[in-house]
């Protein structure tokens, strides 16, 4: 049996380097605004929101600036950190809950109370769309939860999901910045979406939205989703469009991207090169069905001459069949690895890691997993089957049995998924 401990340790180092490159404490200091004449109101949403708020407080205090920051951010349960001045509320993700709805309502009210001499700083990161849930008038919160669940199960990419969410929301799609007008709004964002499109990150609460009610209706039709009658009627009436490019209410809104997936991939590539591997960054926007991408990446790896590290990011999908309820515990990263491991079938000299940089793949508090050439044997010894795990969407159950899970706990940042394949084949 070949000893792969060094390669497995390197894979974990690559993942950790990607996460560290997106740590809010590293990113906030270079982007502090000048002090306003009036109040400094800090609002935010996302898996990194609490860590961003804490870093903002530290950096602002180090500068000795006045006024002191005040405000509120909402983050995922377990992702909160202590702050002194900016309130942190925890709520559910990926399915919104009442705590998130209440926090979103308070955040909108704080924005509406901002004056012309105040400054609103919006700390936005991935996960903010589910956490910043405030249904449009006439839509019940339970109905919004139901359509969110249906979108998650449909396999829709994040851009489509957010186009629908924005048009069912009182706060997304630029509405938060519009509510703060005439106060200036500075958004500091950490991206978790392919292409780093500002209007897609957390459904763009502070930036103009180019999508329309017609787009939202078409997405639901194409995905064969049947919303509640109130949602269907609201989308059909199309009476309250999101702020579009050129909207005067967004004239004082500035957006800065301070953390992005590509920066994290590049940080991991430097670690791989220092370890003697030729690093190939395949991009930060790889999408598609998770298991299919896994098989494609296996074919790519088997065609490589090592030592090489194939590094990529993006957001795959796991599509459930009509009415299907997963029999296991899964996530897109472990589903990718199941597809990869099945296609590799124990090929020597090829190892991989895949994980969500926020430390949570799917709904489990597990970042992802590692596969190596001994994974099929460990599975046999543990009495689990790759094919059965794929059929049940049970990646977490499979890798728990093989001992290959990567568990980090909340990383307090989020730059989407991270994947690395090491090839030592001659």
SSE blueprint:
Elements: H1 5-21, H2 24-27, E1 40-45, H3 49-63, E2 69-76, E3 86-91, H4 98-112, E4 119-125, H5 128-131, H6 141-154, H7 158-166, H8 175-180, E5 185-190, H9 213-222, H10 229-237, E6 253-259, H11 261-274, E7 278-286, H12 290-302, E8 308-314, H13 332-344, E9 350-356, E10 368-371, H14 375-382, H15 386-391, H16 395-402, E11 405-406, E12 417-423
Parallel strand pairs: 1-2, 1-4, 2-3, 4-5, 5-6, 7-8
Antiparallel strand pairs: 8-12, 9-10, 9-12, 10-11
CATH class term of the largest domain: Alpha Beta
- Tell me the CATH architecture of the largest domain: 3-Layer(aba) Sandwich
Determine the number of helices (DSSP H or I, runs of at least 4 residues).
Answer: 16
The named CATH superfamily of the largest domain: Glycerate kinase, MOFRL-like N-terminal domain
Low-pLDDT regions: none
Might you state the CATH topology name of the largest domain?
Answer: Rossmann fold
Q: What's the shape?
A: globular
Query: What is the percent of helical residues?
Result: 25-40%
Topology, number of strands: 12
Summarize the helix and strand pattern as letters.
Answer: HHEHEEHEHHHHEHHEHEHEHEEHHHEE
- What class would the helix/strand composition place it in? alpha/beta
Strand composition percent: 15-25%
Distance between the termini: 18 Å
Strand order of the largest sheet: 3-2-1-4-5-6
Q: What's the number of domains?
A: 2
Question: What value does the average pLDDT take?
Answer: 94
Keywords: Kinase, Transferase
Pfam family, one: MOFRL
Domain MOFRL-associated: 11-235
Protein name: Glycerate kinase
């Amino acid at each position: 049996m070949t000893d792969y401990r060094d390669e497995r340790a390197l894979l974990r180092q690559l993942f950790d380097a990607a996460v560290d490159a997106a740590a809010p404490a590293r990113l906030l200091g270079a982007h502090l605004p000048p002090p306003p004449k009036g109040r400094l109101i800090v609002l935010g949403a996302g898996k990194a929101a609490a860590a961003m708020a804490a870093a903002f407080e530290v950096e602002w205090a180090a500068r000795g600036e006045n006024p002191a920051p005040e405000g509120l951010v909402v983050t995922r349960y377990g992702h909160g950190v202590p702050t002194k001045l900016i309130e942190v509320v925890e709520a559910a993700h990926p399915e919104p809950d009442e705590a998130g709805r209440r926090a979103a309502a308070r955040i909108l009210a704080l924005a509406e109370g901002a004056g012309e001499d105040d400054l609103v700083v919006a700390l936005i990161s991935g996960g903010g769309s589910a956490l910043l849930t405030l249904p449009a008038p006439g839509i019940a919160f339970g109905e919004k939860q139901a359509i969110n669940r249906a979108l998650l199960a449909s396999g829709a990419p994040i851009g489509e999901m957010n186009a629908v969410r924005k048009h069912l929301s009182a706060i997304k799609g630029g509405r938060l910045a519009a509510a703060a007008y005439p106060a200036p709004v500075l958004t500091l964002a950490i991206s978790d979406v392919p292409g780093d499109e500002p209007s897609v990150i957390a459904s763009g609460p502070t930036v103009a939205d180019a999508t329309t009610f017609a787009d939202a209706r078409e997405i639901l039709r194409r995905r064969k989703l049947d919303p509640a009658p109130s949602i269907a009627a609201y989308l059909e009436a199309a009476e309250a469009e999101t702020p579009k490019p050129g909207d005067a209410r967004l004239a004082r809104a500035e957006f800065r991207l301070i953390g992005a997936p590509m920066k994290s991939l590049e940080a991991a590539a430097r670690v791989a090169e220092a370890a003697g591997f030729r690093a190939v960054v395949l991009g930060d926007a790889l999408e598609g069905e998770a298991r299919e991408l896994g098989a494609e990446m296996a074919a790519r790896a088997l065609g490589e001459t090592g030592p090489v590290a194939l590094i990529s990011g993006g957001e795959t999908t796991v599509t459930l069949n009509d009415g299907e309820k997963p029999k296991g515990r899964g996530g897109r990263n472990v589903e990718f690895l199941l597809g990869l491991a099945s296609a590799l079938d124990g090929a020597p000299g090829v190892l991989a890691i895949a994980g969500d940089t926020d430390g949570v793949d799917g709904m489990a508090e597990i970042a992802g997993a590692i596969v190596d050439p001994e994974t099929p044997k460990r599975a046999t010894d543990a009495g689990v089957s790759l094919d059965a795990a794929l059929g049940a969407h049970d990646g977490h159950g499979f890798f728990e049995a093989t001992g290959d899970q990567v568990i980090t706990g909340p990383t307090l940042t989020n730059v989407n998924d991270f994947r690395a394949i090491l090839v030592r084949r001659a």
